[in-house]
């Protein structure tokens, strides 16, 4: 049959020249499509004599297969080239260093609050909270601090403004966490075991005082709680907190909301200007405490003939300074990033009962 070699040469050349999928498709249609040249040739087979058909038929089929294979190969080549082109544009250098992601740190006060909460939780205390803007009733009266009581002046209270003509007593920024005792008792009643960590405010500013600082309050009320339970509880706490056995010394004191009242010192030593807690024959005052005054229980709606217990209040910032050797209290609240990076904790530094 004539022309097969020409057809072959023509279409293989066209396939090779097709530069994109559309061009390749039109080559396919004109060669192998229903009305394509090879289809027409195949139709001509019917008009041939058998001898001629015997050679022309297979030759045409071979041509068809060959062009089909060439089309496929070209298609794959075009696709590969397109992919290469795309990958060139989307090239990523995975060896580049990652962009820095600034990481914050946990403030020592937050860390110490967590540590205290973990230790007291182990002794059955849950965390209670109260507002930082308090009524004078919760901050003073309910705690047995009468209006004329000198403790009201000693507290250097911040008062909030009232509108002119509004003669109700002003709200205050709470001067201690003790009002949370009242709120927790009102909410839950007795028996109760809570600690209340949080911010407190007093007008005071020098190397050891800032107008805002942190306290942790403790309260345990039940039928027969005594000062002995208080002492055990605090020694247990300090020993867990400092990671070493810590003895305490109770000194008689006075607080309007406790009777009897005691100031508590922890055992420590000063060697070469370095403070060590839990050893030596020095003592350092760390908190106030006592047996909750019957008036206080009564103002919180708890019957003092049925219930009694202890309370304590302790400075958290001071506890952080002692444990982590931080010298100046004011730096705690200056938000100096260098200080925070130096004294801050990683988020993964979970407080544990067994941390040293
Ligand atoms: N609220 C006292 C203060 O801020 C500390 C305190 C002393 C709290 C004795 C107590 C306590 O619960 O029993 O100075």
Helices and strands, with pairings:
Layout: H1 4-17, H2 21-32, H3 37-44, H4 50-89, H5 108-122, E1 126-127, E2 133-134, H6 136-139, H7 150-154, E3 172-173, H8 179-188, E4 192-201, E5 212-222, H9 227-242, E6 248-255, E7 258-271, E8 274-277, E9 282-292, H10 294-299, E10 308-315, H11 316-324, H12 337-343
Parallel strand pairs: 1-4
Antiparallel strand pairs: 2-3, 4-5, 5-10, 6-7, 7-8, 7-9, 9-10
Helix pairs in contact: 1-4, 2-4, 5-11
Residues 176, 178, 217, 255, 257-258, 288-290, 311-313 line the site of 3,4-dihydroxyphenylalanine.
Summarize the structure in words.
The protein is of the alpha+beta class and 356 residues long. The chain folds into 2 domains: 4-89; 108-343, 2-Layer Sandwich (BirA Bifunctional Protein, domain 2), CATH 3.30.930. It is 41% helix and 20% strand. It has 12 helices and 10 strands. It has helices spanning 4-17, 21-32, 37-44, 50-89, 108-122, 136-139, 150-154, 179-188, 227-242, 294-299, 316-324, 337-343, and strands at residues 126-127, 133-134, 172-173, 192-201, 212-222, 248-255, 258-271, 274-277, 282-292, 308-315. Strands 1, 4, 5, 6, 7, 8, 9 and 10 form an 8-stranded mixed beta sheet that branches. A two-stranded antiparallel sheet has the order 2-3. A hairpin with a 2-residue loop joins strand 6 and strand 7. The longest helix has 40 residues, at 50-89. It is rod-shaped. The termini are far apart. The model has no long low-confidence stretch (mean pLDDT 91). Bound molecules: 3,4-dihydroxyphenylalanine. 3,4-dihydroxyphenylalanine is lined by residues 176, 178, 217, 255, 257-258, 288-290, 311-313.
């Amino acid at each position: 049959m004539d022309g097969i070699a020409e057809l072959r040469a023509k279409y293989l050349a066209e396939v090779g020249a097709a530069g994109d999928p559309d061009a390749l498709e039109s080559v396919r249609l004109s060669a192998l499509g229903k009305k394509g040249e090879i289809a027409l040739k195949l139709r001509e087979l019917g008009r041939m004599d058998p001898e001629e058909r015997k050679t022309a038929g297979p030759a045409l089929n071979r041509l068809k297969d060959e062009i089909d294979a060439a089309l496929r190969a070209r298609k794959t080549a075009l696709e590969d080239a397109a992919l290469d082109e795309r990958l060139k544009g989307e090239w990523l250098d995975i060896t580049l260093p990652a962009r820095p992601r600034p990481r914050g740190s946990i403030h020592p006060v937050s860390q110490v609050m967590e540590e205290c909460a973990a230790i007291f939780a182990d002794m059955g205390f849950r965390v209670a909270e109260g507002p930082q803007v308090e009524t004078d009733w919760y901050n003073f009266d309910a705690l047995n601090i009468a209006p004329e009581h000198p403790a009201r002046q000693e507290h250097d209270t911040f008062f909030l403004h009232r509108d002119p003509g509004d003669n109700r007593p002003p709200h205050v920024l709470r001067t201690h966490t003790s009002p949370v005792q009242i709120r927790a008792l009102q909410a839950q009643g007795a028996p109760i075991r809570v600690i209340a960590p949080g911010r407190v405010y007093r007008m005071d500013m020098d190397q050891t005082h800032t107008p805002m600082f942190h306290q942790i309050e403790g309260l345990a009320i039940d039928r027969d709680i005594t000062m002995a339970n208080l002492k055990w509880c605090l020694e247990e706490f300090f020993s867990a907190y400092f990671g070493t056995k810590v003895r305490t010394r109770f000194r008689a004191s006075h607080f309007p909301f406790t009777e009897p009242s005691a100031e508590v010192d922890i055992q420590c030593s000063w060697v070469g200007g370095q403070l060590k807690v839990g050893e030596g024959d020095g003592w350092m005052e760390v908190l106030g405490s006592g047996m909750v005054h019957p008036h206080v229980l009564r103002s919180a709606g708890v019957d003092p003939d049925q219930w009694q217990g202890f309370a304590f209040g302790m400075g958290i910032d001071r506890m952080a300074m002692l444990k982590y050797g931080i010298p100046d209290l004011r730096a705690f609240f200056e938000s100096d990033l260098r200080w925070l990076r130096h004294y801050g904790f990683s988020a993964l530094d979970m407080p544990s009962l067994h941390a040293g």
